[in-house]
UniProtKB/TrEMBL annotation:
Keywords: Heme biosynthesis, Iron, Membrane, Metal-binding, Oxidoreductase, Transmembrane, Transmembrane helix. This is Cytochrome c oxidase assembly protein COX15 homolog isoform X2. One of its GO terms (biological process) is heme A biosynthetic process. The gene is LOC114250621. Pathway: Porphyrin-containing compound metabolism; heme A biosynthesis; heme A from heme O: step 1/1. The chain crosses the membrane at residues 81-101, 165-183, 195-213, 233-257, 278-299, 341-358, 370-391. GO terms for cellular component: mitochondrial inner membrane. SUPFAM superfamilies: Trypsin-like serine proteases (SSF50494). InterPro entries: COX15/CtaA_fam (IPR003780), HemeA_Synthase_type2 (IPR023754), Peptidase_S1_PA (IPR009003). It catalyses: Fe(II)-heme o + 2 A + H2O = Fe(II)-heme a + 2 AH2. GO terms for molecular function: heme A synthase activity; metal ion binding; oxidoreductase activity, acting on NAD(P)H, heme protein as acceptor.
């Protein structure tokens, strides 16, 4: 008689775990096992397992081994999914930097139409001339670029075309593998939800991009000081979606490539409470500071006070609350927007430094300790890039590096929070 209780060392009665029957093939077992009546005895009961579990309807192989267990190992997501998510996050990183360069070179309004599957690149002089004539019908040419040459127009058109094409490449890199992994059953239920959200964010990001560009094509620039440009609100929304998508993809990749232990429970550890809270705070502050940077870019606020640490001759400029109602200053007054960005940047730097100092006295893993050090170092580098960008009147190279630096800082914050959470899983 085959003693299944001894094989799996179950501690519960087999009748209570009928839904957790695991069947796997193994060479060396004959058909006679299937037809043999399997009976195990507990303290007070004797069960006929063959009749209760209807083995004949579920077992189709000729040789089997069976295990009854009170719990089963948690299935793992394929590493391929993790590398896919990591690759997509890298593409989003590149798109953010490319978008920043497109904005800094004032190329974003050169393409005045949008098609879901992409615009056709002009192939001859006649098609290029038609594109140029379309551009001449919109505010940026009428009020700002009346003297732009044909060759200069081609250059800014290429910049915007590259940004849009890269965005569509991200869509393909996201949707096609997602469909494949989903069809092949390589995504666990929680990862399916995450992937669905990622795909939704990619689609929303593309639509928001065109909605943003459209705001700069509208005929709403009539004042003597009006400059044709996209809405700072839509620019901030576009950048916010990119940062959320990037952080989500990176976090999802870490969950697969550095998974939380399956045979462990998540515990609250007193020594890590302050580290956890501060790490999440730095992550949130990095995101908020980056969004405020979008308002700086949208209003060209980096060009109003190019001095540091004071703003002109004062710590607090006289025109910081010049707009009415007061609330408008925080999103429409270039002086206030720049001041807010300075304060947020300094606050993020202070928090990242405090986090590093605090981590020195906590029981962290080598990975978590390295992440805390890198986060603090990057925060100081990012602050230096910001000050240099301001003092040099926002040159393209420095400004793009500053924007890329914000993503690097966010990446390190995501890594640190993941490493700290790993420490909280205690083996059973």
């Amino acid at each position: 008689m085959l003693n299944l209780s001894r094989l799996c060392q179950c501690k519960q009665s087999l009748n209570a775990v009928q839904s957790k029957l695991l069947v796997s093939s193994r060479n060396g077992f004959s058909n006679s096992i299937i037809s043999r009546q399997i009976i195990t005895t507990t303290k007070t009961h004797r069960y006929n397992i063959l009749g209760r579990l209807s083995l004949s309807s579920t077992i189709k192989s000729n040789s089997i081994i069976m295990r009854f267990c009170s719990s089963t190992p948690k299935p793992k997501t394929s590493k391929a999914v993790g590398y896919w998510l990591l690759g997509c996050s890298g593409m989003v990183f590149t798109a953010v930097v490319l978008g920043g360069v497109t904005r800094l070179t004032e190329s974003g309004l050169s393409m005045v139409t949008w098609r879901l599957l992409g615009e056709k690149m002009p192939t001859n002089e006649e098609e290029w001339q038609k594109e140029f004539e379309k551009y001449q019908q919109y505010p940026e040419f009428k009020y700002k670029n009346q003297n732009i040459t044909f060759s200069d127009f081609k250059w800014i058109w290429y910049m915007e075309f590259a940004h849009r094409t890269w965005g569509r490449a991200i869509g393909a890199a996201m949707f096609l593998p997602a469909a494949y992994f989903w069809y092949r059953g390589m995504l666990l239920p929680d990862m399916k939800i995450r992937v669905a959200v990622y795909c939704g964010l990619v689609a929303a990001q593309g639509l928001m991009g065109w909605y943003m560009v459209k705001s700069g094509l509208e005929d709403r620039f009539h004042g003597p000081s009006d400059v044709p440009r996209v809405s700072q609100y839509r620019l901030a929304a576009h950048l916010s979606l990119a940062f959320i998508l990037y952080a989500g993809l990176l976090g999802g990749a870490l969950r697969v490539l550095r998974p939380f232990p399956a045979a462990a429970t998540l515990q609250k550890i007193k020594e890590l409470k302050s580290i956890t809270g501060l790490a999440h705070a730095v992550k949130a502050m990095t995101f908020i500071t980056a969004v405020s940077g979008a308002f700086v870019a949208g209003l060209d606020a980096g060009l109003v006070y190019n001095s540091f640490p004071k703003m002109g001759d004062n710590w607090l400029p006289d025109d910081i609350l010049a707009f009415s109602p007061t609330i408008k200053n925080f999103t429409e007054n270039p002086t206030t927007v720049q001041f807010d960005h300075r304060v947020l940047g300094a606050s993020t730097l202070a928090a990242a430094t405090a986090l590093w100092l605090l981590s020195r006295g906590r029981p962290l893993s080598p990975g978590a300790r390295a992440a805390a050090r890198a986060l603090a170092a990057m925060a100081w580098m990012q602050a230096g890039l910001g000050v240099a960008t301001l003092l040099c009147y926002v040159p393209t190279a420095l400004a793009a590096s500053h924007q890329a630096g914000s993503l690097v800082l966010l990446s390190l914050a995501v890594w640190l929070t993941h490493e700290v959470k790993l420490l909280k899983y205690i083996p059973k």
